[in-house]
User: What shape does this take?
Amino acid sequence: MPDLDVAILGGGCAGLSLAERLAEEPGRVGSVAVFEARDGYRPDRTWSFWRQGPHRFESLVRTSWDRMRVRGDGREALVDCAAFPYQALQAQDFYDHCVQRLGSSEVTSLELDAAVEGEPRCSGDGWTLTVGGEEVRAREIVDTRPPDVLPECLLWQSFSGCVVRTDRARFEPGVATLMDLAPGDPGAVAFTYVLPWSEREALVEWTVFAPQRRSAEQLGPGLAQAVARASGGASVHVEREESGALPMGPIGPRTTAPWVRAGLFAGAARPATGYAFQRIQRWADRCAERLRAGQPAVGARPDGAVTRAMDRVFLEVLRADAARAPELFLDLFTRTEPARLVRFLSDGATLGDALAVVRALPPRPFLRRLPAALPEVLHGGTA
Ligand SMILES: Cc1cc2nc3c(=O)[nH]c(=O)nc-3n(C[C@H](O)[C@H](O)[C@H](O)COP(=O)(O)OP(=O)(O)OC[C@H]3O[C@@H](n4cnc5c(N)ncnc54)[C@H](O)[C@@H]3O)c2cc1C
Assistant: This one.
């Protein structure tokens, strides 16, 4: 008999999201352990998304914005999104919540400072893992660890940001600046992202979409300029920093392993945007439901053909002609009805929404890149 019903490898967003659901309602799952390499959690990121209805982390949301701004190309789009506000939650609040939930359940345990070594090995009625030199056996494995070798992708979304406090009112609460696009980085799409917590406190991020990943050090000068611009000459105190690099298309579910993989590098991130938090929550709901019913775990559901095709063409256009990005994003945000735009960005698009997005954009650059998207549509997954 395996020691565990479910072993979750990696206790970040995906691993904790799944375990949190099993802690609450285990069903036929008798024992779950999360093995996490870190020895503790720290406030290392902020998760944002559009609220499209009630969700399980409502109480953790620190700030909501009813308007979103995109600026560039000498134009500005100020979009009313009050019906589906842009929301942010702090990773530390999420980690604390999950640690508390797992700790108060008799079914789940969280092992910190517990790096899983190598790959799981198939053993009769389950899997064997090595954790800290010890062998652990589990009936089901859900592996959310990032891969050792980073995948090929069309673009990397690299970003470096900080939460700053200014000595004067400098930010506009209520308006999330999703993109303040800046020219001058050839072959890359570069912009500032500003989430104001108050008039004097904001998360300011410098983001670059480019074929190569950029480190936080490489993004440093851009971030310094972004902070100076966003804080309009006020004196600035940096409260904390966060950075990352997200793969942008075509990362589908990884099917090379005979066990279930999940998370950022296994299809969790929307290819054209890098948004992953809500997709991870939808996956965790589905995976937990199956495990509770005694069924095998599952990975991310592949995107439909329309989404795959549109994301692929969009990324191909950005990669081939990054200088057009301001014009394209401004067209997208000014010409698409907000509800349709948000549904499209949040994976809830109808065919009508997808058509509205297509109509908002100039056809020629996209038609030219259409052939590059065909293999993605034909071989990338289910429609
Ligand atoms: C700074 C930042 C901001 C982001 N902001 C947003 C946002 O606003 N909205 C959005 O939708 N998405 C956002 N994302 C993207 C995505 O939501 C996050 O990357 C999310 O954390 C992905 O979850 P995950 O579980 O796949 O990866 P992670 O949360 O990174 O978890 C993977 C875990 O595996 C652990 N691990 C690695 N190796 C081992 C090992 N050998 N053994 C055991 N454990 C191991 C790691 O320590 C880590 O805890 C952001 C990403 C970053 C980095």
About this structure: The longest strand covers residues 236-248. The longest helix spans residues 363-379. The mean pLDDT is 93. The chain has four domains: 4-41+91-150+256-292, 46-88, 159-245, 305-379.
